[in-house]
């Protein structure tokens, strides 16, 4: 597993004293304050960087709004960011994807979540002192971005792209993109340890669904939250040709895109 994408609790524990490693807790403020958090972590709640008004593509908050959040948290563009939540990383992965889109070079996901960390390492209720920064975003150019829109997805349906639906079975059976395979994002998580399954197990799980590094892959769900986690995992496993349908099924249906429904015998 590439630790430039996903880091273990042991890695993070060894870097707690590094001032260039900034830990971001994306849980609600009451969890951060009332339950505790990782030492040195700053709080940037999920709702603060997800904007349903579509000021940018999908539910991205816009480059300037996101930069203001990072600046208020005292983060510099050169810092290494490690994000976590307490939901197996799915909300933190959305933060990772957003930071990548707006040009932060080094942003990583913590393997596991707050509960996984808390089993081995101390937490705190002390809020770190923050010195705000003047964070300047550097959004990716469209050709550099993993995000794709409706037209690109429609084009991908005409060639050998593999559409991966990361939702639950009942959602998948109700409506899905034509030819899509289902891979519930939670399948990569070990429920007992709350961390990712071993790399060999992940590769086997993915290969069983035909999700292999040689394929062009388009990920979607309903509103692009769950695919964030799958996207980060695939990146950590070395997958290179992975597209992220930000509008997901919500946009697809709004545009009267073709769908399939019903059970799939191979599921």
From TrEMBL:
Residues 17-126, 157-261 form the Rhodanese domain. Keywords: Repeat, Transferase. Gene3D superfamilies: Rhodanese-like domain. Its EC number is 2.8.1.-. GO terms for molecular function: transferase activity. PROSITE patterns: RHODANESE_3 (PS50206). Residues 121-142 are annotated as: Disordered. Pfam families: Rhodanese (PF00581). Residues 128-142 have a biased composition (Acidic residues). CDD domains: TST_Repeat_1. This is Sulfurtransferase.
């Amino acid at each position: 597993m590439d630790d430039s994408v996903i880091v273990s609790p042991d890695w993070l524990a060894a870097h707690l004293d590094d001032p260039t490693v900034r830990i971001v807790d994306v849980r609600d403020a009451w969890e951060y304050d009332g339950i505790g958090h990782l030492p040195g972590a700053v709080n940037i709640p999920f709702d603060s960087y997800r904007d349903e008004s579509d000021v940018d593509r999908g539910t991205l908050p816009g480059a300037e709004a996101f930069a203001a959040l990072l600046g208020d948290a005292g983060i510099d563009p050169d810092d290494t960011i490690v994000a976590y939540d307490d939901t197996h990383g799915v909300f933190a992965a959305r933060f990772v994807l957003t930071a990548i889109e707006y040009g932060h070079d080094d942003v990583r996901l913590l393997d596991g979540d707050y509960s996984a960390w808390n089993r081995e390492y101390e937490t705190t209720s002390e809020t770190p002192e923050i010195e705000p920064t003047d964070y300047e975003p550097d959004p990716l150019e469209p050709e550099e971005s993993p995000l794709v829109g409706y037209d690109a997805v429609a084009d991908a349906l005409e060639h050998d792209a593999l559409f991966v639906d990361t939702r639950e079975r009942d959602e998948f059976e109700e409506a899905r993109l034509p030819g899509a395979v289902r891979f519930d994002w939670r399948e990569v998580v070990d429920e007992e340890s709350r961390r990712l399954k071993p790399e060999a197990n992940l590769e086997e799980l993915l290969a069983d669904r035909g999700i292999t590094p040689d394929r062009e892959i388009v990920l979607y769900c309903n509103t692009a939250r769950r695919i964030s986690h799958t996207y980060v995992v695939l990146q950590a496993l070395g997958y290179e040709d992975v597209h992220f349908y930000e509008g997901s099924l919500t946009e697809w249906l709004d545009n009267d895109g073709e769908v399939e429904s019903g059970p799939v015998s191979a599921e």
